[in-house]
Here is the input.
Amino acid sequence: MVEKRVKACVPRASKYDKLSKSTRLQDIPAMKLISLSAHFDGQSIQLDEPYKLEPNIKLIVTVLPEQLAEREAWLWLSRHQLNNAYNQNDDYPLDAIKTPNPDYAGS
Here is the structure.
């Protein structure tokens, strides 16, 4: 019986697998994460303010739903409750004030 030697399949090391001895991890610049405001014009995504992007840079795009009706409802509710709390016809007696303000002419 002839014994065959089998070479182990070891993948070749990539040039990126190991850092050179002169390169330390803290010397590699970290990518800064940023959020950019943008809109879709019907054909492409357009940044709302200029920003220099490198060609072929990877991006993550988050689509924000239109919520104007909900926002308007919250604004109306806020206005309504503020009007209820601070009515022009309200008359507060001075003895209702816990801490008088010496700079206020009415106290």
DSSP finds one helix and two strands in the chain. The longest strand covers residues 38-40.
